[in-house]
Description:
Blueprint: H1 4-14, H2 20-44, H3 48-56, H4 58-106, H5 110-125, E1 130-137, E2 142-153, E3 156-168, E4 171-179, H6 198-210, E5 215-227, H7 229-235, E6 242-248, E7 254-256, E8 261-263, E9 267-269, E10 280-289, E11 293-301, H8 311-327, H9 329-335, H10 341-351, E12 355-363, H11 364-368, E13 376-386
Antiparallel strand pairs: 1-2, 2-3, 3-4, 5-12, 5-13, 6-9, 6-12, 7-8, 10-11
Helix pairs in contact: 1-4, 2-4, 5-8, 7-8, 8-10
Amino acid sequence: xxxxxxxRQLQDYADGKLTDRDKEQFELELEKMEAYQAYLGELMGNxxxxxxxxxxxxxxxxxxxxxxxxxxxxxxxxxxxTALTAIGIxxxxxxxxxxxxxxxxxxGNRSSLYQDVVSSSIALTRPNLTVxxxxxxxxxxxxxxxxxxxxxIGDSEVSVGDFQLKFLLGWPMGEQTTWHSERNNSNASxxxxxxxxxxxxxQDWATLEKLPEGTVTEAxxxxxxxxxxxxxxxxxxxxxxxxxxxxxxxGQERKLGDAEWVMNPVGFPAYPLWHAEDxxxxxxxxxxxGWFGKTVMESSISPGIQTYGDGTVRDKNFLDTLxxxxxxxxxxxxxxxxxxxxxxxTYLEANGVKLYGVVVTGPTKELLxxxxxxxxxxxxxxxxxxxxxxxx
Length: 392
């Protein structure tokens, strides 16, 4: 017969009241009883006479079997209860973390700021490349940013790759870029800092000559000296082509070869990278939601800029963008580890913005005319597309 102490311990086990140590010891006792029951079943399982004998003495033999069955059910009940408790804890943690994650990336406009830093890092360190996309916060304090890499070729923004970046509490976990062609993933030098590379340049001029009419081309143009932004913009005034990215001298350039091809140039798009503080609010309205909530709607516009002027505004926007990247070094170092922010900013603030290269796009045969310009020292041909151009 089952003792009172054992019955009470069994009940506590079924209710989950035992300590971990007592629970472990009690389960050992249950395993022993299961072994006894299995042995008893083996002795009596196929013997009809023993079965009748057990039925004849039910008060003595059936009681241990029923008790063992009760213990086995209690053991499984405790296991299921433990599993359900663990699942409940996981669900609760997931819900709480999702709420906290939304608050973390939402407060202070962190999500928008991180997106701005990502797009600015790419625009300043990858000639004629931009990324546009959006972010989505998840549970467990993570956020996914997904965007599309684009180039300006002719009058069209051409998709050249897909970009992804995961954040963990504001810490970038790694960039993943899927290029649509191997050419877009090239790390070849595109600008000459000084001197000339006649063989390479002649080859690219020959390429432009052989390309057919009805195409538009992206070209990386190296200059004969360093120009201010206004000086360089004026050289394109009246030409049937568009400058889209400027390479700025920072004093930190890494060079390759005697001709001084620049590795990993730093510069800025022809159209400024306007940030939240640059925008001018034109209208604002608030609508109350419930007791404490409200919806705020704003409309804003970016500053106007002259097509072939406002060099001072463009230079300031370039420095402002570098200062923005300086505030978020973990993101910048992940996307542009070759960019030495501190010495770059120090040099530009002391010496001003001077340009030694420019990315140009337009009709192929129009770009070929640059060969006659004294201020062009060499050219590298980039992407080529069929006609998509409105003459300037």
